[in-house]
């Protein structure tokens, strides 16, 4: 399977973040290469190098040479073609990322076997300046400055502070690392494996904190032509999504009208996501009526079937109630306490996400807050709680509650829009970026509403795109789609 990986486009933000943790830097007016450790484990780490073009003209190609100390080797790389000579590793463009415009940047990643950090670096043949490499590298990513929850478990605190958070990355490498201690393969699932809740965070199989980022479908009943092999390929390999949320409405022409048909459709999309190494979030999209107990029997039937079908997979996450509204937390918990055991009977280690009061606003949209959950969590482990926002409608008071709640309970933004709560209107770029920066800092996973060509501001694609099958590139994107594609590709 051909895999395409992330190319970090130069956003001011990305460049700033990378520079802040740079080990190597060339003077302004030259190419700049920065090296960061994005994750580490017992005897290995994941590195990232960003080549920034700080000159005033386009660079047509680039070559980075890293020298590793004895005992450390690089097993695989993505977004670059790698060759080795002794302990020097050369990285040249993967094909599509050779040219870097003035002010832009390209990134590649690699997995190192052994803990030695690079001792030398060349960019386009020129010696890097500032090659003094700290003996104990400051591996902090911006997110690592987020203080772990006071109430997080010891293991969560340890993993959050011992190894920086990692956003799953993709690889172009066909040959996975041979090391048993390092993640192998290149897709988010190949790298991170079975996820689990660790304290207030989401962790990968190796115990490192992960943040999944991706796109949500619109209602499967309305946009069948939007979710195909072609579009899933673009979402995985071009948008570099880690996560694909499958929104199966229950009412409004959804599951209740054809349970076996919608179950089959969801299963098919899980398989498509799996084939592309993405995490699949199965969303039982209850909305109206707002009491999830209205659909309790349907939920049990549906989740019994899908969890049996996907039990052996490592990449399936279950979202059991999209947006409870007009019901108490006690009623939502009652629902969760009955549905979760049905899933666990088939798939004991899967992460489950539970909706929260007030359209998954942690209660804020109905005058409440997260305390009702914190003091009375569902009766199961390995559970996260959903928070949804629409950037033009939900701002500082919602952000404050998310930050407060995130210190005590694991949150997952299973749905958000760049527009207002109707799903329509203009994109609020500033609020969206403020939100996503907050989620990045707190390492809260998210999925954007929607990868569809609905005629509304939240849709990523222009009307007609899905029937035309023209998913690749940027030509069919709305403003929201362009923003999301850039954010996801930036990692
Ligand atoms: C909206 C769709 C819209 C559709 C409507 C139907 O964008 O095209 O007509 O649902 O109910 C949510 C819901 C999500 C909404 C979305 C925007 O989870 O189903 O989708 N939204 O209103 N919560 C807050 C906003």
Describe the overall structure.
- With 491 residues, the protein is an alpha/beta fold.
- The protein has two domains: 12-162, Immunoglobulin-like (Sandwich), CATH 2.60.40; 211-489, Glycosidases (TIM Barrel).
- The protein contains 13 helices and 19 strands.
- The chain has helices spanning 12-20, 154-162, 188-192, 229-238, 259-275, 296-310, 329-346, 357-360, 371-374, 396-406, 429-442, 465-468, 479-489, and strands at 31-41, 44-53, 64-67, 73-78, 80-85, 88-93, 105-113, 120-123, 126-127, 196-198, 201-203, 213-216, 243-249, 279-285, 316-319, 352-354, 383-390, 411-417, 446-449.
- The strands form four sheets. It has an eight-stranded parallel beta barrel with strand order 12-13-14-15-16-17-18-19, surrounded by four helices.
- Helix 5 runs parallel beside helix 6 (296-310).
- The structure holds ligand IDC.
Keywords:
491 residues, TIM Barrel, alpha/beta, 5-stranded antiparallel β-sheet, Immunoglobulin-like, single chain
Please render the helix and strand layout as text.
Elements: H1 12-20, E1 31-41, E2 44-53, E3 64-67, E4 73-78, E5 80-85, E6 88-93, E7 105-113, E8 120-123, E9 126-127, H2 154-162, H3 188-192, E10 196-198, E11 201-203, E12 213-216, H4 229-238, E13 243-249, H5 259-275, E14 279-285, H6 296-310, E15 316-319, H7 329-346, E16 352-354, H8 357-360, H9 371-374, E17 383-390, H10 396-406, E18 411-417, H11 429-442, E19 446-449, H12 465-468, H13 479-489
Parallel strand pairs: 12-13, 12-19, 13-14, 14-15, 15-16, 16-17, 17-18, 18-19
Antiparallel strand pairs: 1-2, 2-7, 3-6, 3-8, 4-7, 5-6, 8-9, 10-11
């Amino acid at each position: 399977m051909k895999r395409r990986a992330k190319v970090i486009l130069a956003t001011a933000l990305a460049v700033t973040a990378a520079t802040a943790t740079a080990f190597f830097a060339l003077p302004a007016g030259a190419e700049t290469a920065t090296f960061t450790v994005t994750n580490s484990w017992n005897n290995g780490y994941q590195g990232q190098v960003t080549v920034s073009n700080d000159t005033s003209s386009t660079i047509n190609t680039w070559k980075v040479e890293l020298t590793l100390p004895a005992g450390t080797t690089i097993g695989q790389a993505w977004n670059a073609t790698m060759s080795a000579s002794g302990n020097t590793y050369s990285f040249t463009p993967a094909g599509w990322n050779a040219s870097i415009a003035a002010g832009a940047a390209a990134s590649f990643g690699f997995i190192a076997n052994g803990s030695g950090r690079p001792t030398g670096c060349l960019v386009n043949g020129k010696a890097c300046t500032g090659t003094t490499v700290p003996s104990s590298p400051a591996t902090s990513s911006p997110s690592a400055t987020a203080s772990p929850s006071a109430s997080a478990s010891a293991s969560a605190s340890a993993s959050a502070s011992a190894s920086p958070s990692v956003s799953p990355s993709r690889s172009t490498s066909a040959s996975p690392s041979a090391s048993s201690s390092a993640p192998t393969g290149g897709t988010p699932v190949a790298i991170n494996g079975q996820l689990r809740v660790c304290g207030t965070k989401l962790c990968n199989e190796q115990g490192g904190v992960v943040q999944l980022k991706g796109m949500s479908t619109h209602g499967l009943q309305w946009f069948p032509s939007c979710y195909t092999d072609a579009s899933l390929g673009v979402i995985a390999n071009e948008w570099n999504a880690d996560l694909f949320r499958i929104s199966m409405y229950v009412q409004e022409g959804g599951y209740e009208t054809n349970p076996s048909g919608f179950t089959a459709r969801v299963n098919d999309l899980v398989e498509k996501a799996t084939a592309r190494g993405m995490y699949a979030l199965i969303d039982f999209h209850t909305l109206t009526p707002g009491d999830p107990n209205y659909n309790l029997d349907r939920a049990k039937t549906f989740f019994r079937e899908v969890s049996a079908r996907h039990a052996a997979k490592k990449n399936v996450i279950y979202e059991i109630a999209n947006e409870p509204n007009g019901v108490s937390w006690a009623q939502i918990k009652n629902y969760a306490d009955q549905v979760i055991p049905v899933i666990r009977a088939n798939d004991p280690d899967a992460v489950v996400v539970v909706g929260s009061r007030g359209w998954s606003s942690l209660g804020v949209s109905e005058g409440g807050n997260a305390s009702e959950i914190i003091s009375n969590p569902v009766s199961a482990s390995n559970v996260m709680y959903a928070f949804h926002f629409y950037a033009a409608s939900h701002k500082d008071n919602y952000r404050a509650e998310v930050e407060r709640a995130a210190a005590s309970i694991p949150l997952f933004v299973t749905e958000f829009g760049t527009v207002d709560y109707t799903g329509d209107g203009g994109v609020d770029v500033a609020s969206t970026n403020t939100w996503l920066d907050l989620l990045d800092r707190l390492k809260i996973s998210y999925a954007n509403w929607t990868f569809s060509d609905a005629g509304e501001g939240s849709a990523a694609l222009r009307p007609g795109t899905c029937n035309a099958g023209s998913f690749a590139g940027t030509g069919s994107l709305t403003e929201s789609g362009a923003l999301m594609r850039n954010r996801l590709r930036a990692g």
